[in-house]
Amino acid sequence: MVKAIRVHELGGPQVLKWEDVEIGEPKEGEVRIRNKAIGVNFIDVYFRKGVYKAPSFPFTPGMEAVGVVTAVGAGLTGRQVGDLVAYAGQPMGSYAEEQILPANKVVPVPSSIDPPVAASIMLKGMTTHFLLRRCFKVEPGHTILVHAAAGGVGSLLCQWAHALGATVIGTVSTKEKAAQAKEDGCDHVIFYKEEDFVARVNEITSGNGVEVVYDSVGKDTFEGSLACLKLRGYMVSFGQSSGSPDPVPLSALAAKSLFLTRPTLLQYVVTRDELLEAAGELFANVASGVLKVRVNHTYPLSEAAKAHQDLEDRKTSGSVVLIP
């Protein structure tokens, strides 16, 4: 038996229960991992609340972890006991001391990167990779808008886009988060609680608008984000921390021939090659210093409910990690 966080009913952070679970041995094509660090993401909150539907009940949340391989399924080559590996995405269930994973979903972690750093950046970092490099390809000279610029993905988006030569506009809620956003490469920071971000973007871009908006906030920012785009601009909606956006009529896109997408990481790392490419580019940027990873908050795995509460209360910045 190992300890894990289990959810038996949907609701607030209090539904996260610390329980014994049986995980068994790895079958063919699987590995067993003893987790060393587990990333916390807003998607975990969505599953806990029922915004996204869990595949079964009860369930263990969590979409990323770094751990040591402790057992390998029959006939498997390329992974061995003692390897330090990471994964992000499916299957859900990383809020556990140990877990069983498909071997083709784990990637090797370079020895130069500490487990809490790797665990905090896999999901957010590979998300950042596909948003900037594949969903819309940010290039030198582009101007982009990043909402929640001091958040987990927002921080990485700003850093990586700045390194690519883009002009970065970021929205934040506090002076502290503004300072971090500046440090991360934001050329312009907007206090969305005090300023109309659409008017400020218009001012900053001399009325031209931005090539792309990366919006993880959803309901509160969606319409304004569309208004910030230039002709044939890209609206990339990849989260909904303020709630699901209201339905948008297709005609709303027609005035400026806009593109609208709601992508997810899982559709961009479908093959083993795509996964290794994304993780490889990510780890290279961490190792080279292009990406500064802030693991600002660590909690014992047993206190996952506290981590969720702080995340939802916007008391966190950077990355949140659980330590088994």
UniProtKB/TrEMBL annotation:
It holds the Pfam family ADH_N. One of its GO terms (molecular function) is NADPH binding. Keywords: NADP, Oxidoreductase. Gene3D superfamilies: Medium-chain alcohol dehydrogenases, catalytic domain, NAD(P)-binding Rossmann-like Domain. One of its GO terms (cellular component) is cytosol. Residues 11-322 form the Enoyl reductase (ER) domain. SMART domains: PKS_ER (SM00829). InterPro entries: ADH-like_C (IPR013149), ADH-like_N (IPR013154), ER (IPR020843), GroES-like_sf (IPR011032), NAD(P)-bd_dom_sf (IPR036291), QOR-like (IPR047618). CDD domains: QOR2. PANTHER family: QUINONE OXIDOREDUCTASE PIG3-RELATED, QUINONE OXIDOREDUCTASE-RELATED. This is Probable quinone oxidoreductase. It comes from Phaseolus vulgaris. The lineage of its organism: Eukaryota, Viridiplantae, Streptophyta, Embryophyta, Tracheophyta.
